[in-house]
Amino acid sequence: MAKIMEASGLRKRYGAVQAVDSVTLDIEEGICLGILGPNGAGKSTTIEIMEGILSPDEGKVLFKGKPIGRDFKRKVGIQFQTTALPEFITVKETLRLFSSFYPDPRPLGQIVELCSLADILDRDNRKLSGGQRQRMLLALAIVSRPEIVFLDEPTTGLDPQARRNFWDLVARIKAERTTVVLTTHYMDEAQVLCDEVAIMDHGKILERDRPGKLLARHFTGALVKIPKGCIDGALPASGRMVADFLEIQSTNLDDTMRELLAGGINLEGLSIHKPDLEDLFIELTGASLRN
Ligand SMILES: Nc1ncnc2c1ncn2[C@@H]1O[C@H](COP(=O)(O)OP(=O)(O)OP(=O)(O)O)[C@@H](O)[C@H]1O
Ligand SMILES: [Mg+2]
Questions:
Q1: Which parts of the chain sit beneath pLDDT 70?
Q2: Atom of ligand 1 nearest to the CA of 43
Q3: Which ligand is nearest to the CA of 38?
Q4: Residue 248 and residue 206 share a domain
Q5: Cα–Cα dist 116/104, whole Å
Q6: For ligand 1, what atom is nearest to the CA of residue 41?
Q7: Are both 52 and 187 inside the same structural domain?
């Protein structure tokens, strides 16, 4: 499939902090790419360089094979991690205002429908709840019919239901073949929305692939975890310590349980689950994403 954006060799330093360190990332048209990583990993800095908001110290960014230029602004929709909305005007007035900035904006009705704004059109921007505000910011990001949308932690701080509602909106935008790049700290969000994920830490991309492929590369079978405190002898041969847990990748749970019992390990607190992106993140960085 065609690449809509290609970034290569991006570097950005702030004083002693190498915020982005040799990032190369290409994005196929129409996919949803998730960038995952702990606080300070360099996610926002990376996407702001790709958005053309920040200039890198080194490296280059191409949009459809050409360096990003003035017309790129019309092709890209951006939802920043933090944004101020104009005060003392309503949602509808704000949408009209932003529409007036573009030559061929989406019709208001379509935006309202896509982003589920019908109930709050007459509300003052200052009175929006967290979830309503995120819907509104997404609407503003897509007013111009962008070909690619960047969403920086769009669901941080939302309650579980509001997060799911937001996922539906992103799915609708994806269904229109708009390319979506989002950053998140939520593994379930990445699992549901993202065709591909890039895992970042300390300014570098550690791994990047389809979630299923990444998991298959790192895990086989079920993941058995036992808290550190339940082990007071030698580790079983099949296990190893990852963060504060003894972890065993088991393809035969009967055998694994027998091995643990024979080793005198206290099974209280044991958990068994299918490995997910959170486990992969801990495996790669030794820390939980939410830390
Ligand atoms: N304008 C700036 N001036 C100085 N340092 C900065 C600036 N912007 C980012 N940094 C530093 O660069 C590093 C990467 O920051 P960035 O905002 O890209 O991380 P992030 O992955 O988006 O984190 P979060 O999950 O907290 O949003 C951090 O150490 C941050 O403190
Ligand atoms: Mg950020």
A1: 287-291
A2: 21
A3: 1
A4: no
A5: 21
A6: 21
A7: yes
Cα–Cα distance measured from residue 233 to residue 227, given in angstroms and rounded to the nearest whole number: 13
CA of 183 to the centre of ligand 2 (A): 8
3-state secondary structure labels for all residues of 216-233: HHHCCCEEEEEEHHHCCC
Enumerate residues lining ligand 1, CB below 6 A: 14, 17, 19, 37, 39-45, 81
Same domain, 130 and 228: no
Three-class DSSP category at 78:
strand
φ/ψ of 18, rounded to 5, equals: -85, 90
| Residue 10 confidence (pLDDT) | 98
Indicate the residue type of 200: M
Instruction: Say how many Å lie between the CA of residue 261 and the centre of ligand 2.
Output: 44
List, as one string, the DSSP characters of 99-147.
Answer: HTTSSSPPPHHHHHHHTT-GGGTTSBGGG--HHHHHHHHHHHHHTT--S
Full residue range of the structural domain in which residue 119 is found: 3-215
Residue 285 lies in a domain: no
What is the predicted pLDDT for the residue at 291? 45
Residue whose CB lies within 8 A of the most ligand 1 atoms, among 43, 53, 185, 202, for a mutation test:
43
> What torsion do the CA atoms of 154, 160, 202, 150 make, to the nearest 10 degrees?
-20
